[in-house]
Input
Amino acid sequence: MTRKEMYTTQLAMGLGLIQETRQLLELWQPGLGGGELYQRALVSGMFPNVSAYRLRNIVVRCFAPRYLVNGGAPACWLKKLSSTLKPSELDQLFFLYTCRANLILADFVRDTYWRLYAAGAQVVRTDDAKSFIRRAIDDGKTPSRWAEGQIERVGRYLTGCCADYGLLGDRTSAGRLITSYRIEEKAAAYLAYDLHFAGHGDNSLSAHPDWRLFGLSRDDVRDELKRLSLKGHIILQSAGDIMHIGWKHKSMEGFLDVLAQG
Output
């Protein structure tokens, strides 16, 4: 595992930040970097109760690593969809990019949250998050051994971020309640096209780990792709383990234009 892939405490800078992300997408324009967006946000009047220091952390250390990667493509695409997708659909895309930018969150969701969900657990306990972190430390997934207080805090960040995105509900004496969580049709279509244009082949696409963020196994993804085919997003031909997908749009931008029209 390279240093770049190691777990960090970046979530301390901001968890889901759903409302802030919507506001920053409204302010963002193609070509703006994190520092320029921060300056625009600072004078916009849209964050009256946020200190300049806190706002800089939100923009530069949270928004930028999530949405300004790859030349700002995620921000460009989400900005186009922000006024047309349902909040629940857009929030799932925010969740996807937050996980991509925070490996510790992605692995926690894939390896702990969905394991507990599948086992019929009612809650995710603080101890579940702390155990996940301790195993990661023992496996060398952190740059150094974290102190107990840091493990406690990062555990709260993980469950808090899951709560922001709707995977967890209210806090009880036993832990945070596990909610019923299912990928939305348009979020699934977005992810499928995103992976396709990133160069993943039709047969390998269904095994991509991003699907597991939504609790989907490879067979589940094939079922999801069948539903997308019925909805007209793709043309799916499947025989046994071999799958061929007819992609109806030649670019991500073309797909988004159709998706934005509803």
Q: What stands out?
A: The CA atoms of residues 126 and 156 lie 7 Å apart. The chain has a mean pLDDT of 95.
